[in-house]
């Protein structure tokens, strides 16, 4: 199955673990980094593995071309991503160590997660066991609990946006569609197979869409394919709105019940949105006797650890051709001023 493309037209009290932590602001510049293999490419540039001379650590350096950001009118979009990543820190999120800019580009210094995408491991295994799926789901629930308590919705959950650490934990990456939302927002964004009904119907949405997407992810991990699939996005949307899901026989009844409650069409009745919020998901019978405190402390033995040949190992990522970076067009003083706010985050 090909990787799914993200598509877009362009308050509850915090739980104990879900609080902003003052982040030490680190100062970087491009000369601090030895550029190595390309880990991924995107609309605005690419992500390179780097070794930082300041601490001799490996990082993923996300390089975003200013000219392309301006051409596609995405300055505010990128600002939101950088601002959110500047505020958050969690064991199951790919954290940002810092960011900087020069005349041509913005740079985000992201922790390097060597194990590759959950997507690749799932495609290789076809489907995960009940215990393995539950383990990854639990770590995502803890991350969502943290984000939602800070009024941040993620909006792009899918196996392609989950990375596996060398120790075997899952980390959410790519916060391009994350947003701080007090009540609800109306932007259509996400990946077709993972869109909640309220996004498709333009009813306005909030954290409910993340819990829906979790239900889709748990189903895909257990079945090996998503619950709503069609050759066209429109066909997928029709199936999502119809809400009919067929469950393979091998899926445990408790897991099936959890998925069904996460995929409730009525978001006021959806697990995660009902009284208790994230606690309603944690307390579901599929997670009976699950040690949430140990999970947050990363003391539960992971079900799988990727084989690695050192901290800079990249063999779990696809190969990308090296490219000579083209000379970027000059941007005006007015356009440069649009990027000044990044230095305040």
TrEMBL record:
**GO molecular function term, any single one:** cAMP-dependent protein kinase activity
Keywords from the named record: ATP-binding, Kinase, Nucleotide-binding, Serine/threonine-protein kinase, Transferase
A Gene Ontology cellular-component term: cAMP-dependent protein kinase complex
Q: Which GO terms describe its biological process?
A: anatomical structure morphogenesis
Region Disordered, residue ranges: 310-331
Domain AGC-kinase C-terminal: where?
Answer: 288-345
Boundaries of each Protein kinase domain copy?
33-287
* InterPro entries recorded: AGC-kinase_C, Kinase-like_dom_sf, Prot_kinase_dom, Protein_kinase_ATP_BS, Ser/Thr_kinase_AS
Residues recorded as binding ATP, renumbered to this chain, are 62
Family listed = Belongs to the protein kinase superfamily.
What is the official name of this protein in its record? Uncharacterized protein
Species of the source: Triparma columacea
